[in-house]
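Fold this: Transcriptional repressor SdpR
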Amino acid sequence: MEKEIKIFKALGDEKRLEILSLISRKNMCAKGIARHLNITESAVSQQIKVLKEANLIIGYKVGYHIIYDINEDSLKNSIKFIDSIIDNNSIISDTNLDKLICSDKCKHLKCISDYKFKEGLIMKICFPVESFNGLKSIPYGHFGSAPHFVICDVETKEVRLIGNGDLGHEHGKCQPIKALSGETVDAVIVGGIGAGAIRKLGSMGIKTFKAIDGDLEENLKAFSNGTLKEFSANHTCNHDGCSHH
């Protein structure tokens, strides 16, 4: 990446950017550049040297003068380099990216996909909600009667809403698979949930955690910090005084 480093270092200066902008519109010599930018010729020469070393400009002789123009190919390659980063194409060679994980002490929300439980990585988290406002949504107080579920994919950072496919279930007979409309998740964070639903979710390898006061973003942070309390299998739900198991 030595070539790219030189290019981006060269672009990290206001005067050099002004020179590139100027000669992209009209090719000119160092004296003309100095006159247009109101700087000395020696200052222009110093900046041109950096730009030439980065292969961002080319010079051609006209009479006694050297006229400068931008190197379009080099600039286009720089754009392709940026595009490769945006498109998630690795620029790191000889590295197995699958083996790169964050430190256990990392508490950053963006690293939540690396928060590790004994059974493995939690990749998709489900939040029962009453209304949807992205990560500012508030976790609902009960799993089975929640109108919607927000699915947070901590690997892709995707946040989306699905409906409760079992909203009209008989009291105490929530069917989590039906409620989630077949959606595969690794954990549920909710205000309250019955023991039956906890056991059914657990049988599918889905962990359940008690939501804290606050929005989804605050709960995700608490989750990544490992401070959310996991529901026990014999938990009694007190939603609306139901106390069902």
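The chain has eight helices and nine strands. The two ends are 60 Å apart (CA to CA).
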